[in-house]
Amino acid sequence: MSSRIECLLDEHATRELCHDVVHEMEVGLYLYHLEDPEDDRSLRFIGANAAAERITGASASLFLGNLIDENFPGLREMGLPQAYADVVRTGRAWRAEQVVYGSDRVLTAAYTVKAVALPGQCLGVLFEDATARQRAQDDLRASEARQRALVDALPDTLYRVGKDGSLRDVKQGAVGPAALAQRIAAALVDPPGVGDVRVFEWEDRGEVLEVRLVHAGEGDMLAIVRDISERKRSERRKDEFISVVSHELRTPLTSIRGALGLMEGGVVGAAPAAMHELMVVARTNADRLVRLVNDMLDLDKMEAGGMELELSALDAAELADAAVAGVRGSADLAGVRLRRVARPGLAVLGDRDRLLQVLTNLLSNAVRFSPPQAIVTVTVTESSAGWVRFVVEDEGPGVPRERVDDLFRKFTQISSDGARRRGGTGLGLAISKAIVGQHGGVIGLVPTNGPGATFAFELPATAARLEADDPAVDDLFGDLRAAYAASLPAQGDALAASVRRSRADAAALADALAIAHRLKGTAGTYGQHAVSEAAARVELALKDARASLDADVAALEGAVAAVRRAVSLASSSRV
Amino acid sequence: MTIRKVLLVDDEEDIRTIGHICLSRVGGWETLLAANGEEALRLAEAELPDVVLLDVMMPGMDGPTVLARLRTNPATAHIAVVFLTAKVQRWELGHYVALGARGAIPKPFDPMRLPHELRRILGRTA
Questions:
Q1: Do A171 and A151 touch, CB atoms closer than 8 A?
Q2: Is B103:B121 a contact under the CB 8 Å cutoff?
Q3: Between these two residues, A316 and A486, which has the higher pLDDT value?
Q4: From the candidates A250, A254, A288, A309, which should be mutated to test the interface with B, based on the most B CB atoms within 10 A?
Q5: Residue A504 in contact with residue A510, Cβ under 8 Å?
Q6: Of residues B2, B31, B21, B86, the one with CA closest to residue A260
Q7: Do B26 and A251 touch (CB under 8 A)?
Q8: 10 Å Cβ neighbour count for A557?
Q9: Which of B:22-61 have CB within 8 Å of A?
Q10: At CB < 8 Å, which residues of chain A contact B?
Q11: Among A53, A135, A390, B53, which residue's CB has the most CB atoms within a 10 Å radius?
Q12: CA A295, A332, B116 angle in degrees (round to 5)?
């Protein structure tokens, strides 16, 4: 008993399912009942699905309950009712392609028709708009042809990539080169995801290929290979051209610069004031040309990968000091104050001259864009990731938003009006980026809310001990160092005076820290006497400042400790 | 050391002109000029200058070769040599010093400072 109920339920479910399928399918369906098996005129319309209405454009309610000839006049001339009745009588399906039909109710089209017998003298007529299908097929074929033409016209070679990296040329069907297949197989270890493109260059017998690996849907991978040898060659020619031109410019520039310098210096007789003024203009611009040529050669060398770094452990604070000292002259001329704040004890592994070039560049940019009386600050800190961060802040007009993106490209000027007039070459930031990049660091413009521009770069910190300078280099610059050492006590005095006078404002403190730090770094070279004398004065000044002011106690202690260390270092090293 | 006589060697006539005015008027030294290596060697032996300011890149005999030839001649072996060259890289400076030069002055130079630079380099312990 229960099995019978299940069977009925089952049958019910099947019917429901059939109903759904019939309703949802894309093929049109008309249902007829042959009332008199002997008379094909007795085919009565008993139902239709949604697709039928969509395809014919006619609502089934118009036809429901009517005889076939009432619904579709003209069908009889084409022999369809007769064929339908035969299907019911014989149980054999009937099929016709391209039945062109139309009436005042039904859209004219070429229909594909299939009639099948159903239980109870019923008939199902399945039909599709062959025109639409044909059109869709034509469209698809046309689009394939277009894509094919496109692919054929592409200068690139297209490979379908097998799971093992094997290559099959999409255009010619040939197998791709084995060596390239091997390289691609290696890249497939970490295949690009959907929408990703993996690009790499591959050299083969003097040819340079650019390979783009793309995910082409469902486990399919395409390799688009472009021969970029010519581009590479022309890039090389361009670089060589720049290099040659720059070198060739240097010789006449030496003469021009030299001649102007001698005239300006009054060596060949005093010039009238106006003439002197013109000479200064000419000489200043010759200097600028020299800078431009130097920058171009620098960048050229870096881009050719020819920049060799001389790495050593560098005291980050000392680096900042040296950079500040380098731009002191131009800052004084512009009436801009320089401030340096540094956490002592931070070291980076790098090329001193190159990093100095970066810092000097950022600082001189900052000075160039600063109004008189403004402050330019260089800060050395440790970033959260344990990197050493150099930050250069100014109080200038800042960088316009639309310029931010191409700031580090060649010949980009921060402001269209100012920079050239202000003597920039437009290469400084591009060079800085190349240098920092070569050091494994990053450089960028820090977004700020206030006015002014803030540039920062970060370098991996090194735990390496700061080593003494190479003795050979020491000798080479010995006199310079001696002169510097001799000036230390005076510097200490000046500093002490300035600290007392200004009641140790932040800038002076930073300077004090800088000097103390420099002393620490150089104690070994200058000998005990000069260092301890200078250090003592600085220490005294700092103590004064500390007693009288609400200064940063921690920073002061750091400075005092640094000075003490410098003194002890000096006493333990050669004099 | 005291400088009295300087020999400037450069294949560019204009640079010799500038150098001559600069060394003689700003430096106050007797200044000799040579346009190539051979001339430089001949003048150095005949005039025995205190210092030779030597261009590195010259057609024919280049600067380092001239330096080597000066050193092998007992008459000129003691003469101080300072290179005058395009942008000085640190490793290049080391290289020149290893060759026996006292230093290098980068081109383009500031003629008002050149004599000072020269004195500075030669003032260092030899």
A1: yes
A2: yes
A3: A316
A4: A254
A5: no
A6: B21
A7: no
A8: 12
A9: 22, 25-26
A10: 247, 250-255, 257-259, 261-262, 264-265, 267-268, 286, 290, 294, 297, 308, 310, 353, 472-473, 475-476, 478-480
A11: A390
A12: 65
| Residues composing chain A | 575
Over 70: is that where the pLDDT of A5 sits? no
User: Distance (Å) from the C-alpha of residue B112 to the closest C-alpha of chain A?
Assistant: 6
Residue entry with tokens 């002011």: A549
Question: How many Å separate Cα A445 from the centre of its chain?
Answer: 14
Tell me how close the Cα of A480 comes to any Cα of chain B, in angstroms: 9
User: What tokens appear for A445 in the block?
Assistant: 């413009």
Question: Which residues numbered 104-123 in B keep a CB inside 8 Å of some CB on A?
Answer: 107-112, 120, 123
Q: How sure is the predictor about A542, in pLDDT bands with cuts at 50, 70 and 90?
A: low
Contacts of B18 in chain A (CB under 8 A): 254-255, 258-259, 262
Residue A48 reports pLDDT greater than 60:
yes
Stretch (H or E) spanning A43: strand A43-48
Cβ-defined contact of A479 to B120 (cutoff 8 Å): yes
Verify whether the Cβ–Cβ distance B22 to A475 is below 8 Å: no
Of residues A427 and A35, more confidently modeled:
A35
Distances (CA, A) of A187 to A49, A201, A210: 53, 12, 14
Residues with Cβ < 8 Å from A323, sequence gap 6 or more?
A356, A359, A360, A363, A378
| Bridge partner residues of A350 (DSSP) | A312
Q: Report whether pLDDT(A534) > 60.
A: no
Does B103 contact A at CB distance below 8 Å?
Answer: yes
Distances, alpha carbon B55 to alpha carbons A74, A454, B33, B117, in Å: 107, 43, 12, 16
pTM of the model: 0.49
- Per-residue confidence (pLDDT) for residue A538, from 0 to 100: 60
Q: Tens of pLDDT along A120-152?
A: 899 999 998 887 778 888 899 998 888 888 888
pLDDT band of A162, cuts 50, 70, 90: confident
